[in-house]
Design brief:
Layout lengths: L2 H15 L11 H4 L4 H11 L5 H14 L2 H13 L23 H11 L2 H18 L3
Helix pairs in contact: 1-7, 4-5, 4-6, 5-6, 6-7
Length: 138
Amino acid sequence: MKRRNFLQLSSFAGLAAFTLPVGSCKRNSLASDPYNETVLRVKEAMLSMQRASWEQGVASQAFVELGDENMIVLMGYEAHLRQTNEGRLAVLYTDNGVTDPASAGEAVLRAGEITGDQVLKESAGKMVSYLLNNVSSM
């Protein structure tokens, strides 16, 4: 498969993920208890590291899958605060990736749903627009 087709297909699959209900994911017994000591240790280690946009997205997604709404909101706001003018989320430094910053999109959208903050919802929409305009031109 050509890279262009793969990236287009991947971006649309990612957009489809925004429409899936978060609660539809089955959780294992370790993840279903957010106060499990192992889960807490992993959270602390993960939160102590500076990260690139894709790492922020993966960390945010972990909290989405855990159902940890407090952390979803915190991670979503952080990704929003580091959004570039063109729409890429969670950019800590010069990040030339087109799709890496989109990995925080679900957490930003969920944070907007949890808090009702329209700014977060618009931030997620801005990221989607950036992807649609840039991935299709590759």
